[in-house]
Amino acid sequence: MFRYEEYLRSKAAPSTDSSQPAISQFITTSKQHYTSGHPQHNAITWSILSDLVIDCNLPLSIIEHPGFRRFMSVVDTRYNPVSRRTLTSKLDGVMLEKQTKLKDCLANAENLSVTVDIWSDRKMRGFLGITAHWLGNGEGGLVLKSALLACNRFSGSHTGERICEEFEQICEEYKIKKMLLHIICDNAANMRKAFSTCFPQHMTEHEEDDEDDGVEDNNLWTDLPVEDQERVDGFLQDKSQTRQQCFAHTLQLVIGDGLKDTKIANAALAKASKLSSLLHSSTSFKDIFEREFGQSGIPASVVTELNA
Fold first, then answer.
1. Are residues 76 and 116 in the same domain?
2. 113 and 246: one domain?
3. Could you give the angle at the alpha carbon of 213 between the alpha carbons of 212 and 215, nearest 5°?
4. Is 225 helix (H, G, I), strand (E, B) or coil?
């Protein structure tokens, strides 16, 4: 009886052996997540929005996809993904940051050209897209740079006046109108009208004659004072604001007109067009084609496709 009581007392007493681990070390507790204001939490959320949603063009809904959340739990167990609404609310901040960086790049460019296009999607919603192209400093010298300035919803009729108004608003937003060299667009009448409205010629015949006098004199363009040189450079820049026809669209028109007069090829082109239509509309015909010729396909027959 005495030995049994001694055994119970020794069992109840805490162990003094430092080499024996405590049982609490083997009990896992839930890890504490980053707070919403933690720098690492903000960095991961910003990277998801900037790198995945914007650069990789992934949908905002990915933030709530179970597979993505499992992936993030492996990447960092302490990160708790934000909701789609929270991620969407941060878009304005990202847009302002990227716009500011783009404006700084454009401000350092001496001259630039823009491509302008207007089109309708499958739901017949109009959009106006403007892309800027310029030479900038890069590793090893000058490099050609391009940036999308706008891809705006364009409601209503696509008249030249409305295109001109929208174009000038975008130019004013980025402060680029004075540095424009060329505007590249298609050959549509509304585009021609738009840019003849944006850059009208206000010079009279008398002023044109005065400007042309002596331009062949080589001494006129050398050793000018700084003020006069700036005036000449500004004049040359203003005179170079011209609309250039899109080469792809022009080439398409030339080929289209040429094919209309090549009657001997009409039968072959009609057969090729029918074959292409079958490949893109009949699954059974597609299977037979792939068994005979492999996975290589034929592009869809689209008359107005530019691929520009």
1. no
2. yes
3. 70
4. coil
- How confident is the chain (308 residues) per 10-residue block, as mean pLDDT? 65 59 55 87 92 90 94 92 92 87 89 89 89 85 89 89 91 89 86 76 39 48 65 57 77 82 82 85 85 78 55
Domain co-membership, 93 together with 51: yes
Give the position of tokens 């080929």.
Answer: 255
| Residue in the structure block whose two tokens are 């424009």 | 180
- Cα Rg of the chain, angstroms: 34
Kindly state whether residue 173 falls inside one of the protein's structural domains.
yes
**Number of folded domains that form the chain:** 3
For the beta carbon of residue 185, count every other beta carbon within 10 angstroms. 23
pLDDT at 255: 83
Q: Give the Cα separation of 232 and 221 in Å (integer).
A: 9
Exposure pattern of 107-131 as b/e (b: 16+ CB <10 Å)?
Answer: eeeeebbbbbbbeeeeeeeeebebb
Last residue of a domain, one of 102, 133, 148: 102
pLDDT tens per residue, range 241-275:
677 777 888 888 888 888 878 878 888 888 888 88
User: What domain range includes position 242?
Assistant: 109-201+235-250
